[in-house]
Each structure stands twice: as C-alpha cells, then as structure tokens.
Amino acid sequence: MSANGLASRIQQFLDPAERLMAGMQSPFQRLAQQMQDILGDRGILKEVIQAGEGPPVPRDASVSIHFSAYLEYSDQPFETTSHLKYPRMMKLGRDVTLYGLELGLLSMRKGEFSRFLFLPRYAYGEIGCPPLIPPSATVLYEVQVLDYLDSAEVDEFFALSPEEQNTVPLSTVLNVVKTQRCFGNRCFSQSRYADAKDRYKQALTLLKNREPANEEEGRSIAAMQLPIFLNLSLTLLRLEKPLKALHYGQRALEVDPQNTKALFRCGQACLEMDDYEKARDFLLMAQANEPFNNDINNTLKKFASCYKDFMDKEKEMCSKMFPDFHVTLKK
Fold first, then answer.
1. The whole model's pTM is what?
2. How far is CA 286 from CA 20, 224, 292, in A?
3. What is the Cα–Cα distance from 232 to 283, expressed in whole angstroms?
4. How far is CA 192 from CA 92, 106, 211, in A?
5. Can you name the residues that pair with 148 across neighbouring β-strands?
6. What is the full DSSP assignment across 130-192?
7. Measuring CA to CA, which residue among 117, 142, 140 is closest to residue 49?
8. pLDDT tens profile 92-122
9. Cα(71)–Cα(115) distance, rounded to whole angstroms?
10. What's the CA gap between 91 and 86, in Å, rounded?
11. Burial label, 139 (beta-carbon count in 10 A; 0-12, 13-18, 19+)
C-alpha cells in the first residue's frame, strides 16, 4: 500500500465524480484491473502473488493463515496477524467470520500468498464497523495459507453418540485419530505442549474405546497407537512430567519392544528422575540400535556427567557422615 504515493493520497480528498471526469482512478480501481473475478459478480477479486501446492482448502477445513487487512489510502493495516509467530487454527464457517475471506480461502492452496479485494457485500456491508471500518468500504486482504487440515470427518464423528461411534468403520476412526494427531503435532511445533497433550490423549481415547473385530483390526489400532505414545512421551518431557513420559514410553515398548525412540524417551525420562541405572540401560539399548544417533550419544554424555556429579556428592555426603571411617581403616 505504501506504493500508492502522494498522488494517491491527494485523490482521497477528491469527489469520485470529479476523479471520473478527470480520468483518475483510485488505488483499488487500478489494482482491480489486474485481478481475477473468482465469483463472476466482481464482488471478490483475487491476485495470486505466490502459488501454493496441493488441493484447494476444503469447505470444512481448519486453517492457519497470516493476513493483513487494509482500507483504501491506508499504509497501515486495520487488522493483521503479522505479530503472531504461530497463528491459531481457525475453523471455516465458525471462526472465520468475514464472508469474503472464507470464500477467498476456498480458492487457495497450502503455501499460497494472494491479495483480495472484497466489495462491501462480502466484507462489512453498508454499515461498516464504526469507528474502524467506514460504511460501504471495499477492503484489501493480503492472505497466506500456512497450513490446513480437513476436519469434516472429525466434526461428523464427534457429533455421533458413543454407541453410534462404535458402528463407524475402523477406517473412518483411524482417519479421525490421524487428524487429531496432526492437530497435536501442529500444537507441539508451536510449543503449545498442553494443547498437544490434550489432542494426543483424545486420539488415544478414541482408539481405546474401539473394540477390534479381528486380529487385523487389532494390529491396525496398535500401529496407530505407537506414534501417539511416542508423541505423548516427548510432549510430557517438555512439560517436565518425566514419570508420565516414562509411562507412555513403556506403552510404546509394549507395542514395539525394540523401538529406538521409545527406548530413548524412557532413558530421558529416567535421567530426569535421577534413576541412573534404568536411564543407562534404556539409553544403551537405544544406542545399540542406532550407534551414530547424535541425540542418543549426547544424552549418554549428559548421563555420564550427571552420574559423576551424583557419585561425587554421595562420596562427599558419606565422608561428612563418617569422618573417622578412613582413619579407622588405616589403624
């Protein structure tokens, strides 16, 4: 918007009819000439700045976006998420309240950065939103889709009663669990560990409540549980709850006794609890599986340092408790 320049700023004080007679166009009018009409009524115009990948955002998706919204002749946005490192996921039809923005998002793909012009009927209407948005204002939105998750199946599943959920095909349940895990992974990447933990636990509850009809279903459920156990173990380590982290690490080992990540998580948890004997055993087993894993090797170095400090303190404490012990031995 800063490219509008002084001439554009002067134009805002001219009557639209005078501008038309003088053959002058406003900044938004000039911008509109290079934009695509996505609905056919010129109500929402779009210009792709950077193309995205994959399919368009689904109608029932939850999206994470960066956006900045401008009024004409304004260099500063009246609303923006640029100050947020990790914008929250917003559910289309619920959290995205601007009609034009929701329709615009449905035309976008993951990673896409686009510019939109929304006429008043797709933005804030004839009334506007005083004192911030004037009446009948056309607004410009610059939008980037960071990520999205299709949560339609999740919403439909949780709308069912527990009895109805048990009749849903296992493939649907596994898709819902996978989506919940993806939500958890996104929360984890944003350091929202408590939210991540809740998502993972919800996913595990769905699997726990599902009675496998046969051995094949049992194996599918176990295979889906394993990464969630590992995710939970790491999340609880970040939340400084090593005992619970150990619990889920051991649950993962019940599914796969030689799983390197599970052995490593258990070793980390035991080390945090100063259980050096178990920490050493778990870490050495993990190292045997992956001898050149830097994380495991660095944790073993940390273990050696912590164990040495522990033993030194033990010796010091014993010498203070029994100061004459060595003298007695010499005699």
1. 0.67
2. 75, 22, 11
3. 19
4. 22, 27, 31
5. 63
6. TTTB-TT--EEEEEEEEEEEE-HHHHHHHTS-HHHHTTS-HHHHHHHHHHHHHHHHHHHHTT-
7. 142
8. 988 888 999 999 999 999 999 999 999 999 9
9. 13
10. 16
11. buried
